[in-house]
C-alpha cells in the first residue's frame, strides 16, 4: 500500500462506508498550526522529539536508493547549477556529520555550517507541525475513529499532524458539510518524508488489485503488512530503524471507493467499483482516487528493537561506523575476495615465501 493523482469528478451525493467513522469529528480538538519562523534552538528546546522525527524522515529518504523519486522537497543548496543533477554525495556527507541532537547552546554553536543550513531548511519547510501524543490515550482514540476490530501491536510513538491555517481551511472547504472518516495506510519508511510534504499520491501506488488509487484499511493489522521498517538516523533518540503507519482522514465522497449499505443496488455497486476491469473493493478496504480527498492526521511509529537506541554521549567513532556500515561491509568483502584469490595463486604463494625467507629467516 504505497502512496497519487486521478481527476475523478465528485458530487455531493456521497454515501458513508460500512466500517467508516460515521460521525463527523468536531473541529475543536484539532488546533491549527501557525507554523511561525522556527530556529533550530527553539525546535530542539520545545519539541526535541518532533524535530528528531522530522529529521529522521528526511534522512531515511536521503539514504534510500529511490531518493530521486521520494526526496521531495529536495534541499536547494544541493542542486547542481544545471538544475537537473543533485549533489547526493555531499548531502549524505552532511547527514553523516550531524551530531546527536541537544537543546544546549553549545550544540548550536558547535554545529557545522552545512549541518546548520540543512537543518534550518528542514525545520522551516513544513506546512504542518508534528505533535507527540500520549500514546495509550491517543491510540485508543484512533481505534475508535477507524472502527478497528482486530487486535494489532501498539505503536512505540504517536504523532499528530497539525496543518497550518491555509492547508486546514483548504481541506475544510472541500469537505463542506460531508462527513469524514478514518483508516490506516501502510508504506515503506522512506516514503513518509514525501507523504507528509506532498500528500498521498494514488498514481504512485504499485498495488492496484481493485483499481488505481491510494489503498487504506480500517484494520491496522492489514496496513502493518505494508509498513516495511527502514533505517533512519543512527543517532536518533527514537531509534535507528523505524516503521510507520499513517492514520488518514478521508472525505465521504464518490472518489473514495468502499462498500456501502445505503442507497440502491446500482449506487452501492458504483461506490464499491474502483475500476471496470477489477472486482469491487472488499469490506474494510478503501481506494481513494482523488488526492485532495485524503490527508494524514496521525503517524503511528514502531521502533525496531533489533536496532538499539543510541545512548547519550556515544562515541563519534561508533556513530561513524553505523553511518557507513554498507561501504565498510563492501570493503571487507573485497578484501576477503582478494585474500582468497591470493591464497589460490601459486605466484602469490611463491612471492610470499621468498619474502618470508628473506626478512625472517636471514
Automatic annotation (TrEMBL):
GO terms for cellular component: endoplasmic reticulum membrane. It comes from the Eukaryota. Its EC number is 2.4.2.-. The keyword Acetylation does not apply. One of its GO terms (biological process) is response to unfolded protein. Residues 117-311 form the PARP catalytic domain. The keyword Membrane applies. InterPro entries: ARTD_PARP, PARP16_N, Poly(ADP-ribose)pol_cat_dom. Residues 19-28 have a biased composition (Basic and acidic residues). Residues 1-10 have a biased composition (Acidic residues). One of its GO terms (molecular function) is nucleotidyltransferase activity. The chain crosses the membrane at residues 326-344. It is found in: Endoplasmic reticulum membrane. Pfam families: ARTD15_N, PARP. It is a single-pass type IV membrane protein. It is an enzyme of class 2 (transferase). Residues 1-35 are annotated as: Disordered. Gene3D superfamilies: 3.90.228.10. Keywords: ADP-ribosylation, Endoplasmic reticulum, Glycosyltransferase, Membrane, NAD, Nucleotidyltransferase, Transferase, Transmembrane, Transmembrane helix, Unfolded protein response. Intracellular mono-ADP-ribosyltransferase that plays a role in different processes, such as protein translation and unfolded protein response (UPR), through the mono-ADP-ribosylation of proteins involved in those processes. Acts as an inhibitor of protein translation by catalyzing mono-ADP-ribosylation of ribosomal subunits, such as RPL14 and RPS6, thereby inhibiting polysome assembly and mRNA loading. Mono-ADP-ribosylation of ribosomal subunits is promoted by NMNAT2. Belongs to the ARTD/PARP family. Interacts with KPNB1. This is Poly [ADP-ribose] polymerase. It comes from Plakobranchus ocellatus.
